[in-house]
Amino acid sequence: MNTPTLAVQDAINWMMTHNVMLKATLGSSKHAAVSLTPATISEARFNALRESAPIFGQLINAVAENHQFLQEAIEPVAQGDAFFRELIAMHKAIHQKGNAKRTPLLMMRTDFMDDQELGPQLIEFNGIAAGMGPFGQRTHELHRYLQKQSPNAFSNWNENPHAKLIYNLAITRLAEGIVHAAQSIKAQTEEQDRPKFLMVVQENEDNIFDQFLLEQQLREMGIETYRRTFKQLHSSLTTGENERLILDGVGGIDVVYLRAGYQYCDYAAHDLDSKKCCDTLMNTRIFIEQHKVAVNATVSQQLATSKRVQTLLTSMTAEQLTHFDLTLEQAERVQGLLGDMRLVNEESYDFISTEDVDNWVLKNQGEGGGHCIFGEDIPQKLQQLTPDQYETWALMRRVRPAPRRTPALVVREGVADTVDDLISELGLFTVHLDGKPVTADGGYAGYLVRSKASTTTEGGVHSGLGVLDSLAYEAH
């Protein structure tokens, strides 16, 4: 395959000057891994997924606000998973005696892969730290730039050189959703200053560039932006008039956006906790939700987007799904995308021993990469589980996308390489405020494509095995 050095270097330079970067050390960064060959999808299939994604947002919002269902769904998991035990305790503390004053802002990414036989299948919901939308838009813009700037090289790399790139406005659409939420909260006060947005981040965050792109857009739209860790917020949040959330030195906060809180270590503060690990910073998260502020992700949303709830939803009939604010037509539509998931129990080892284990994935409740078990490791792991651990795991039928028909060019750490069997995962963003879509496109807010070799089980961009990508329509 022809891989002109100048065009590859041009792409790297474009990424570096447009903040498609990851922090490498305290004082340095590197460009994110990227494919220079957009994935293709039929226009009809993309439109169907784009129209279905907001229905998933509507569904998850209803699940998140059905507190009895969540308690019953998560309690069995809490028996064998210490983190979920803490999450359910936080949930109870927030919702006892009507203490939850927050307005739920659901900014969700729904991830799909396109099975060769079954079509698009749901992989997972991401309701907390559902990031990289800005990187998704930037990757689309990179491909559009290369198509114009280096058309010959782009045609050589592309599976279909005449394919039309699919616009991605994730930065703008996500920001519009946040602005709408911020303005709706600010309108409930008599304050005359600009709305304020607080992003809760992890210590030593390496994904600051993706976050910066969103913050930059918000500032251009008239929103003040602030970044704090849970530890920094512990001693700097107070209650103002009319149950306003006040940040010291800043004032009333209108939107809280969590890019942390999906793992135990985000709450660890051994110098603050004298009795029990993580209580202090978890109390900070509880405190936030007891105020009149728009929050993504609420603890309810985090539980509603868990693998446990996904498994339960997958087992429901369309009629049962209508209990969560869906019409029968909407329920049938999403049911066709939910895939096949099964709870783990005493019979799971016998079941998997009669199956081809390569057709299944064993997943725990963890967020991000590194939480899946494949192949012959599945029966071995099932045998190791104790009964109280069964509920913390689920079996998912493995999705088998068709690899691209031609080799793809990827660039990682300044080096270009070809991948013969690249497959892609498509994440669609949606924004709902208090259950109502808030973007101009019915709640749809852009997309993220991450691609990897078909032989790779972990496809995260952070892990170094996946690459950023974009979409183009298949030519007729």
UniProtKB/TrEMBL annotation:
<dbReference type="InterPro" id="IPR014042">
    <property type="entry name" value="Glutathione_synthase_a-hlx"/>
</dbReference>
<dbReference type="InterPro" id="IPR014049">
    <property type="entry name" value="Glutathione_synthase_N_euk"/>
</dbReference>
<dbReference type="InterPro" id="IPR037013">
    <property type="entry name" value="GSH-S_sub-bd_sf"/>
</dbReference>
<dbReference type="GO" id="GO:0005829">
    <property type="term" value="C:cytosol"/>
</dbReference>
<keyword id="KW-0547">Nucleotide-binding</keyword>
<keyword id="KW-0436">Ligase</keyword>
<dbReference type="InterPro" id="IPR005615">
    <property type="entry name" value="Glutathione_synthase"/>
</dbReference>
<dbReference type="Pfam" id="PF03917">
    <property type="entry name" value="GSH_synth_ATP"/>
</dbReference>
<dbReference type="GO" id="GO:0046872">
    <property type="term" value="F:metal ion binding"/>
</dbReference>
<dbReference type="GO" id="GO:0043295">
    <property type="term" value="F:glutathione binding"/>
</dbReference>
<keyword id="KW-0067">ATP-binding</keyword>
<dbReference type="InterPro" id="IPR004887">
    <property type="entry name" value="GSH_synth_subst-bd"/>
</dbReference>
<dbReference type="Pfam" id="PF03199">
    <property type="entry name" value="GSH_synthase"/>
</dbReference>
<comment type="pathway">
    <text>Sulfur metabolism; glutathione biosynthesis; glutathione from L-cysteine and L-glutamate: step 2/2.</text>
</comment>
<keyword id="KW-0460">Magnesium</keyword>
<keyword id="KW-0479">Metal-binding</keyword>
<dbReference type="GO" id="GO:0004363">
    <property type="term" value="F:glutathione synthase activity"/>
</dbReference>
<protein>
    <recommendedName>
        <fullName>glutathione synthase</fullName>
        <ecNumber>6.3.2.3</ecNumber>
    </recommendedName>
</protein>
<dbReference type="InterPro" id="IPR016185">
    <property type="entry name" value="PreATP-grasp_dom_sf"/>
</dbReference>
<keyword id="KW-0317">Glutathione biosynthesis</keyword>
<comment type="similarity">
    <text>Belongs to the eukaryotic GSH synthase family.</text>
</comment>
<dbReference type="InterPro" id="IPR014709">
    <property type="entry name" value="Glutathione_synthase_C_euk"/>
</dbReference>
<dbReference type="GO" id="GO:0005524">
    <property type="term" value="F:ATP binding"/>
</dbReference>
<feature type="domain" description="Glutathione synthase substrate-binding">
    <location>
        <begin position="197"/>
        <end position="304"/>
    </location>
</feature>
